[in-house]
Design brief:
2 helices; 13% helix
């Protein structure tokens, strides 16, 4: 039996000849994202970009500059679905940067919540 068949039976999938071991499915959601590195110092690294993909365990998004792996980050994503079909939502997640390069960063989500965009905007301005 080939290794590909063995891996597929174990739940893995091959992409470009390598095994993808992610435990959750990723969805190609392309939405605006704002991020800020959480730290105790007064100066915080903030920026904006676009999501590349999202899963229940993480978010991959574009960045305007390299982000430091291992740091805690808060991410706000304009969610494509609306509450009751009318109220815009925002996903606000906190997690660790697990991978980053010059233009993208991957975050493992530690906690998240959905907010209405109106209240999320008010909270950001407070």
């Amino acid at each position: 039996m080939s290794s590909m068949n063995t891996e597929q039976k174990n739940g893995g999938q091959f992409f470009g000849g390598t095994l993808d071991r992610r435990e959750t499915n990723r969805f190609p959601v392309r939405e605006e994202v704002r991020y800020r590195i959480l730290q105790s110092k007064a100066v915080q690294l903030t920026g904006a970009g676009k999501t590349v993909d999202i899963s229940s365990g993480g978010i991959l998004f574009t960045t305007s500059e390299p982000l430091p792996p291992g740091r805690l980050v808060e991410i706000s994503v304009n969610w494509p679905a609306r509450l009751d079909g009318t109220c815009p939502l925002q996903l606000v997640a906190t997690g660790r940067i697990v991978r980053a390069d010059d233009a993208r960063a991957a975050v493992r989500i530690e906690r998240y919540e959905f907010r209405t965009r109106a209240s999320a905007t008010l909270a950001a301005g407070a």
